[in-house]
Write a structure and sequence with these properties.
CATH topology: Nuclear Transport Factor 2, Chain: A
Radius of gyration: 16 Å
Distance between the termini: 37 Å
CATH class: Alpha Beta
Oligomer: single chain
Number of strands: 7
Length: 157
Amino acid sequence: MFALLAALAATSVLVPAQPALTQTIAARDAVLFDVMFAKCDPAALAGLVTDDMEFYHDKGGAMDHDAFVADYAKSCAAKRAPDAWRSRRELVPETLKVYAIPGFGAVEEGAHLFYERKGEGAERLAGKARFSILWRLGADGQWRMARTFSIDHAPAP
């Protein structure tokens, strides 16, 4: 936490006002989850998260940057098998909320649905969850995921 506060003090950025902030974060969300679920590109994922990123999952526990990227790379490798399970994430648009964190970035929260299919089989709704993402706006103008809470996972209704 102290590293996060030190980063905030060292690099103050101008966070866009609404509605531009929500549009920017929604676009960044789409890029992040496209890389994670459709592209399966560990190098691209590493560029979308901060070096001190932390991920908290109500089923899988906590992971730091290195564990998160390594776990993702392992998952991508497994998806290369012809009969592997493949997933897709869909944001529930009406649940999206974005809050500015002045001088730092924004918090995004919402709900999403997860679909899965085995190999080239039919896709089915598999589950739902809620999330909160702390996005850091870097001095380079890039938004990166800094902290994530992935919670309230449940089977599809």
